[in-house]
Design goal:
Layout: H1 2-18, E1 25-28, E2 32-34, E3 40-41, E4 46-54, E5 59-70, E6 73-82, E7 97-106, E8 111-117, E9 121-128, E10 143-147, E11 151-153, E12 157-166, E13 171-172, E14 178-183, E15 186-191, E16 194-195, E17 206-216, E18 221-227, E19 235-242
Parallel strand pairs: 3-9, 6-8, 11-19, 15-18
Antiparallel strand pairs: 1-6, 2-4, 4-7, 5-6, 8-9, 10-12, 12-17, 13-16, 14-15, 18-19
């Protein structure tokens, strides 16, 4: 009898020791890693965007580490930390919470690269040698933000709204000069500015807004829209596509 009591105590102690407490840190798998496979050159700031699903609102992201295993191979790892909150184990609060972050790899030499995550999953991208071009060919729109609904239905036209502030009357943005490229689940939007010829340039503030169509997305999943901006600054937005429901659903 004494032996059974001691065994039960040891089991309870072991379970308590393994239970997560506030501040505990643990690794988490990444749902998706986005990278532009083609289009970067050695003068660009290389970016990757990660998306993860936290177990509940009781957790926060702790760290996303980028380890360079070799000159052309990187390893991504993410950990989360439990907040110091009560009631986290109750079912109403156990819904997953999406988390997205864009990370910079800086400028990289020309070559082929690989990014590993979740042990065996990987993404590839290429960096080309930079070519000197005229500034007139690479003036991107001065964007401050972009908006696309986070959740979208499949087989519908998706649109992204671009906003910003043009600081001169000599430049303008035409929608026909906005290029949209797609590779897999990544959309790249390239909004290039045009120069007004024969105008006397003045420094003024002109609101910028443009609605860009991404077309239809048929497959459900996670997607990224990457929008090029001035001075190597880009805007990255993750959105999700689900199958359209045949009839309205009451979520209340």
């Amino acid at each position: 009898m004494c032996y059974l009591y001691k065994l039960s105590f040891l089991l309870l102690f072991s379970i308590s020791a393994l239970a997560e407490g506030p501040g505990d840190i643990k690794p988490i798998s990444l749902e998706e890693v986005f990278v532009i496979e083609q289009g970067y050159d050695s003068n660009d700031n290389i970016e990757i965007t990660v998306h993860a699903e936290l177990p509940s609102a009781c957790y926060t992201a702790n760290e996303i580490s980028i380890n360079q295993i070799s000159s052309n191979v990187f390893q991504l790892e993410m950990s989360i930390k439990k907040k110091n909150l009560t009631g986290c184990d109750r079912s109403p609060y156990k819904y997953p919470v999406g988390y997205t972050q864009t990370l910079s790899l800086g400028e990289l030499p020309a070559g082929d690269y690989e990014i590993y995550y979740n042990q065996q999953q990987k993404r590839r991208f290429n960096v080309k040698s930079s070519i000197v071009q005229s500034i007139d060919e690479n003036i991107y729109a001065p964007l401050s933000d972009a908006f696309i609904p986070e959740l979208n239905f499949s087989k519908r036209e998706l649109k992204v709204v671009l906003t910003g502030n043009i600081r001169t009357n000599c430049m303008y943005l035409e929608e026909k000069h906005i290029q949209v490229l797609r590779t897999g689940n990544v959309f790249v939007v390239i909004p290039k500015m045009s120069l007004k010829k024969g105008s006397q340039c003045k420094n003024i503030n002109i609101p910028l807004q443009s609605i860009v169509s991404l077309g239809q997305v048929r497959a459900k999943g996670h997607y990224l829209v990457h929008i090029r901006g001035q001075s190597g600054i880009s805007i990255n937005k993750v959105f999700h596509v689900i199958k359209e429901r045949p009839s309205p659903v009451n979520y209340k």
